[in-house]
Write a structure and sequence with these properties.
This protein is α+β, with helices and mostly antiparallel strands and 859 residues long. The protein is 19% helix and 47% strand. The strands form four sheets. It has a 16-stranded mixed sheet that branches. Strands 1, 2, 3, 4, 5, 6, 7, 8, 9, 12 and 15 form an eleven-stranded mixed sheet that branches. It is rod-shaped and about 165 Å long. This is Pre-rRNA processing protein. It comes from Cercophora newfieldiana. Keywords: Membrane, Transmembrane, Transmembrane helix. InterPro entries: Ig_Tag1-like_4th, Ig_Tag1-like_5th, Tag1, Tag1_C.
Length: 859
């Protein structure tokens, strides 16, 4: 082959070949017309595929003929070739300049001008070692984003020259520089071609294989991020990229390493989720007779990102914190999620199902140095309306068709999840205390001793509403609590039930049509100490009970410990917040009249010149629905505001209704109030003996309950006035004359003497009458006669006939005439007397006024 042939274009045909000289000459001849040809193509312009328009084809044919004719002419330079060589040299120089002199500017331009807009990320399939994801995005270079004008100009020129940039199949490794460059993952990218000219948009759509790195490294990063230890996350991507310009010009293989930093607070957050369903129920074990506790949870979250993924069934472990942050988490349950379809801008619904066979011992064991277990701490927050934290960790053993690499990664990551607590406000529908029994403090107890407080016994009845999510059987077998009692929002005191468990039982009622599920709890409390902290509030309560007409409502707030039996075993829930009310019915309107005290078996145990100590058995009626045990109590006795004495009682058991033979000790000591007290005491006894309606005011004092002076002082503000107890006299049960101390009288007219039948209320002591100055009256005003006798005589227990007492008749009075008319018969007389009495060492002068005394008149 000739040299001319060797230099001919590969695409030329034999008929179109010309000698260089001929072509040069032809080009020289046509240079003028060539230079005037427009830059844009016309009908005669060659197309990009090498074909020519028809008109120009004819010219080429003629040129070919000329070439064959003039092939022997002298060769000349081919100016188009020269121009092409010059252009090629310029382009080569530009590429060299771009490649070697301005790479930094181009790199800066690419970083700032790049615009990446993801439109969709879809998980197409899960492979044995990773996932295959379809990525769709819009990619372009926007020079307006470049701040430096020089960089922007160089970048625009360079990208205009290159126009398109292509990559071969590429493997990208992503490392974490902060964690010893551990491999985070690998992405396999297919060949890609993009137009890099300024403003040209590229809609890329490709499938990439994503393979995670070592599970240990991922676990370390994820846990540090979840614990807030990462402020800035650094990523470094490395890849060997084969580049092609304009789609076919190879640019070689380039090792690329790029670092990115992400601030932790600017990373995409987990979407806000809403727990739409929580259900706890009993579930049978297939093929077994046993049941387990099952939990069903549904969670809804809105996906605001352009991400689409189908998540298969996954297994998780649910754990709760131990005693301290350094203790390992405690496994409570294993759960499996249903397949989840995540779509862009749509809600994703996750349903999880878990089972609990039994509670682990580490969950219910008390923490060292405390009285709480991890379960107690969890329930304390949950029932208090807080959100306790549970921890969710992937299950190592794969579930169903889940690849092992997913289980390996998930099992190495523990995510804290706030479990929504619930407030148990208004959980207690009703609270009542029946069969109440009170025990006053032990007088020998030291302050601070539980026995120094009054004690309450009774039956607590509680109706509690069960949350809708609790659909399993439970039974409360015992309770223990500390309760604070209020009245009108003012604290009255504290009821302590912490010393021992109080037995309880419960009855569960399922929800019905229009009715909620409920639990009735009954517990009998025995001798629970009641520490009164505000005496004024106690006074208000008792005043309302004694004198009010409406129910007295006491409020109660309590932290209750409950022992519960369930199918997963018995466990204790501590410090369950409870709030309720105790309605107390007002006492009888005629409370003090209904008491109707009646004294008997009176015995004088000690006397002084101005005091008497008496022990008596009293029969009283308790009209209230409450009973009480009284170890010791002291009450002051008043009359019209004057202290006259003291009454004491020990070891009393007061029940509802009639109470007989209640032993009471009384000290009569009016001189404690001075002369006024002596006078007031004398008049009170005189009125009582004369049959007047007398009353005594009872008031407590600081020493009423020695161990609780606050209670005695508080109650002292109440004046409780009761009728003086009726004395039990021999033959006096039928009323009428038999209730008088002077039962009968006999007048001897001719001897001018009189005898009287006296009835003593004392069964063990003798009363002595030292002096009598008396007047007998007829019809209340007419004098019959007078007696003035100063010789002592005795009045032993029972009925006593006095000696004959001398009588000075009023001979000219109407009363004496009536006496003579009744000679040999009987008549009714009144009597006024001043009597000096003596009982042991005690002496007193009393007055007496008796009416309707039956008298026998003898000659």
């Amino acid at each position: 082959m000739s040299s001319d042939s060797e230099r001919s274009p590969l695409a030329s045909t034999p008929s179109s070949r010309r000698s260089p000289k001929h072509i040069s000459r032809h080009m020289a001849e046509d240079v003028e017309s060539f230079e005037s040809t427009p830059l844009l193509s016309s009908d005669a312009t060659p197309r990009y595929d090498g074909d020519l328009d028809d008109a120009h084809n004819a010219d080429i044919a003629s040129l070919a003929d000329d070439a064959s004719i003039n092939s022997a002419k002298t060769d000349s330079w081919r100016w188009p070739s020269i121009i092409a060589m010059i252009v090629l040299a310029i382009l080569s120089a530009a590429i060299i300049v771009v490649a070697f002199f301005v790479p930094a500017a181009v790199e800066e331009y690419a970083k700032q001008a790049l615009v990446l807009e993801p439109t969709n990320l879809a998980l197409e399939s899960i492979t044995a070692d990773g996932v295959r994801a379809r990525i769709q995005a819009n990619v372009r270079l926007d020079s307006q984003r470049v701040e430096n004008e020089h960089v922007r100009r160089v970048g625009r020129v360079t990208t205009w020259l290159v126009k398109e940039l292509g990559t071969a199949e590429t493997k990208v490794n992503v490392y974490l520089p902060q964690y010893d460059n551990i491999l985070l993952g690998t992405a396999g990218l297919p060949p890609l071609t993009v137009n890099i000219m300024d403003g040209r948009n590229n809609a890329v759509d490709f499938v990439a294989d994503l393979i995670p790195g070592a599970a240990d490294g991922i676990r370390t990063v994820a846990n540090d991020f979840l614990e807030g230890k990462v402020d800035v996350l650094q990523l470094r991507g490395k890849a060997d990229v084969q580049l092609k310009a304009a789609g076919f010009i190879p640019l070689g293989t380039h090792s690329i390493s790029e670092s990115l930093s992400f601030e932790a607070n600017k990373l995409p957050e987990l979407p806000t989720y809403n727990i739409t369903k929580v259900n706890f129920l009993e579930e049978p074990i297939p093929g077994q007779d046993e049941k387990v506790m099952a939990a069903e949870v549904s969670i809804t979250a809105f996906n605001e990102y352009p991400v689409s993924v189908d998540i298969p069934e996954l297994g998780f472990e649910v754990l709760v914190p131990g005693c301290s942050p350094y203790d390992p988490f405690i496994l409570v349950s294993k759960a499996v999620t249903s397949p989840v379809a995540v779509r862009p801008k749509a809600d994703a619904v996750v349903t999880a199902h878990g089972r609990v066979r039994e509670l682990p011992e580490s969950l219910t064991r008390l923490c060292p140095g405390t009285t709480f277990s991890p379960l107690d701490n969890f329930f304390k927050k949950y029932l208090g309306g807080e959100d306790p934290t549970v921890f969710v960790r992937g299950q190592k053993q794969p579930v169903a068709d889940t690849p092992e690499w997913i289980s390996e990664i998930l099992s190495s990551i523990t995510v804290p999840v706030p479990f929504p607590g619930r407030s148990f406000d208004n959980l207690i529908r009703s609270f009542s205390l029946t069969d109440v029994h009170f025990t006053l403090p032990d007088p020998d107890a030291e302050p601070g001793d539980p026995d120094s407080n009054p004690k309450v016994s009774g039956t607590i009845l509680v109706k509690a509403a069960l949350p809708a999510e609790m659909n399993f059987s439970l039974n409360v077998n015992s309770v223990m609590a500390n309760a604070t009692v209020f009245y009108h929002s003012n604290k009255l005191g504290e009821l302590n039930l912490r010393d021992k468990w109080q037995p309880a039982n419960s009855t569960q009622y399922p929800a019905g049509e229009g009715e909620e599920a409920s639990l009735d709890i009954q517990s009998r409390i025995q001798n629970a100490p009641l520490e009164v902290t505000d005496g004024d509030v106690l006074t208000s309560v008792i005043t309302a009970l004694l004198f009010g007409t409406e129910e007295v409502i006491l409020g109660i707030t309590a932290d209750v410990d409950v022992r519960i039996d369930t199918i997963i075993g018995q466990f204790t829930v501590k410090d369950v917040p409870a709030e309720g009310k105790i309605p107390l019915k007002p006492l009888s309107k005629d409370l003090f009249g209904a008491v109707a005290p009646k004294a008997g078996n009176i015995q004088v145990v000690d006397t002084t010149p101005d005091s008497i100590s008496v022990r008596a058995s009293v029969n009283v009626t308790n009209p209230t629905p409450y009973s009480a045990h009284v170890p010791f109590i002291s009450i002051h006795l008043y009359s019209n505001g004057t202290l006259l004495g003291e009454a004491r009682a020990e070891n009393l058991d007061i029940t509802t209704g009639n109470n007989t033979n209640v032993v009471v000790t009384a000290l009569w000591h009016p001189s404690l109030s001075g002369g006024e007290g002596v006078l007031r005491g004398r008049n009170l006894i005189s009125q009582y003996l004369s049959g007047y309606n007398t009353s005594i005011t009872l008031k407590t004092h600081r020493g009423s309950i020695p161990a609780q002076p606050l209670i005695g002082e508080a109650l002292s503000k109440l004046n409780i006035t009761v009728s003086a107890p009726r004395l039990s006299l021999p033959g006096g049960d039928d009323g009428g004359e038999n209730t008088h101390f002077i039962r009968d009288a006999t007048f001897h007219v001719f001897s001018s003497t009189a005898t009287f039948t006296l009835v003593s209320p004392l069964e063990h002591n003798t009363i002595y009458i030292d002096r009598v100055n008396a007047t007998a009256l007829y019809n209340h005003t007419e004098t019959v006669g007078r007696i003035d006798y100063d010789l002592p005589f005795a009045a032993p227990p029972g009925e006593t006939m006095t000696p004959r007492l001398p009588v000075e008749w009023s001979l000219d009075s109407v009363g004496y005439e009536k006496l003579k008319e009744a000679l040999g018969g009987r008549m009714k007389l009144d009597a006024k007397a001043v009597v000096g009495v003596r009982l042991g060492k005690w002496r007193e002068t009393l007055w007496y006024y008796g009416r309707g005394i039956g008298a026998t008149v003898r000659p």
